[in-house]
Predict the structure.
Amino acid sequence: MSTKGLFITLEGIEGAGKSTVARWVGEWLGRHQIRATLTREPGGTPLAERVRQIVLELGAEGLSPTTETLLMFAARGIHLENLIRPALERGDCVVCDRFTDATRAYQGAGRGVDAAWIESLARQVQGSLQPDCTLLLDLPVPMGLERAKSRRAAATDRFEAEAQAFFERVRAAYLELARREPQRIHVIDASAPLRRVERQVTAVLERLPGVARGTPSRDGGSAGGETA
């Protein structure tokens, strides 16, 4: 009988380095003989990626905060049904760049969407499924925006176009979530050099059930989507 895999999520504002750290977590798990599926939100499957395009595109038509939130959960439902739940059921450790905490921070605190409504949607879409561990990559907003700007070659998306005040609200919401759930959400100082960030993340991973000893890898690593 297979053992349900661990669900690890990464959160943080733009420029926090989530995609870099997500890849590193996948490699770290692989070195410990733990099979990992790397994915992202919104997106993660071909159909969910199409919804992602709608959410992020700075097009001629606008999206209200309510519509944006509904699209986020629509993409999440597709992602859960077609990638996350199957991977967990076969025993993979799923490493996901953003999950519902991002909706709480971006649409809830950032856009002003009702928190109780967001939680109602979360219950409908994901049921009792929650991340086993969330790595919150935290850094000052000006530093994150500067990093994001320096790596950006193309036009900004719907979120990157927001003003600093928006991201200050998002960051504050993330830190409040971490204060409420310290057992699940681990704050990582993402302003530190990458090696120091990796050491902080390692300290968290080594405390996760089953990770320290590792589990036999059946197929080697697998990737269920690109990280953003």
About this structure: The first helix runs from residue 18 to 31. Residues 7-207 form a domain with the Rossmann fold fold (CATH 3.40.50.300).
